[in-house]
Amino acid sequence: MTEQTSTEKVAVVTGAARGIGAATALRLAADGFAVAVVDLEETAGKDTVDKIVAAGGRALAVGADVSDEAQVAAAVERIATELGAPLVLVNNAGVLRDNLLFKMSQSDWDTVMNVHLRGAFLMTRAVQKHMVDAHYGRIVNLSSSSAQGNRGQANYSAAKAGLQGFTKTLAIELGKFGVTANAVAPGFIATDMTAATAARVGMEFEAFKEAAASQIPVQRVGVPEDIAHTISFLVSEGAGFVSGQVIYVAGGPLD
Predict the structure, then answer these.
(1) Contact 73/124 with Cβ under 8 angstroms?
(2) Active-site residue, 136 included
(3) Catalytic: which of 109, 121, 136, 156?
(4) Residues of the chain with CATH 3.40.50.720
(5) CA angle at residue 171 from 170 to 173, to 5 degrees?
(6) Residue 102: pLDDT above 80?
(7) SS3 of 129, please?
(8) What is the pLDDT of residues 21-75, one digit of tens each?
(9) pLDDT averaged over every residue in the chain
(10) Contact predicate 184/143, CB 8 Å
(11) Domain 10-187+224-249: which CATH number of 3.40.50.720, 2.60.40.10, 1.25.10.10, 2.60.40.1180
């Protein structure tokens, strides 16, 4: 690993072991950030960390359940100690517990709400003090096009819509401290999670992607790097006047 420089900022990406989170961690490392790769199990983040370090960057794998207050506090303290004060936070950690409403259990509902909404709240509350002290910060929350409603995802849709309101409130409360807050709402992105959705509806993943692409104006599904590029902009110096926004990255306009 290289040693921290005076200009190097520390970014925290949750759910960074795979998919959008891993792509974002790699992109931010390429942008010059030291990156804390947070996932449920520390060992899960090793591959992402190894790739960052191999490219000459600094990274730290941290295991934490983002819905657990004590684990979040310990994770942020460790990050601040071993990497430096975190001034960028990407709340990406998420899970699916899809089902139609009449089949959805209370556990299905609570698990999704706890990871997406409570997790974003706990991580942001723990990190914002470092941003306020530095009078600088960037927060990006991962919403979804499902925030507009999606069959079989009452829990996920509600959580992702909630993150949009959370984001706008953060922008209002933290703006005077030099902190911006924005949300990125992906459309169809080819990840393990969308593969799980294909399995749930009984389709082969390739056929599922082809069907989705036919309905997208750019005629393809997204990849994790599409989201990482957008996040890269939102956490950049040049995005300091962009705050409280929800950016849909979906290959076209949504109805």
Answers:
(1) no
(2) no
(3) 156
(4) 10-187+224-249
(5) 60
(6) yes
(7) helix
(8) 999 999 999 999 999 999 999 999 999 999 999 999 999 999 999 999 999 999 9
(9) 96
(10) yes
(11) 3.40.50.720
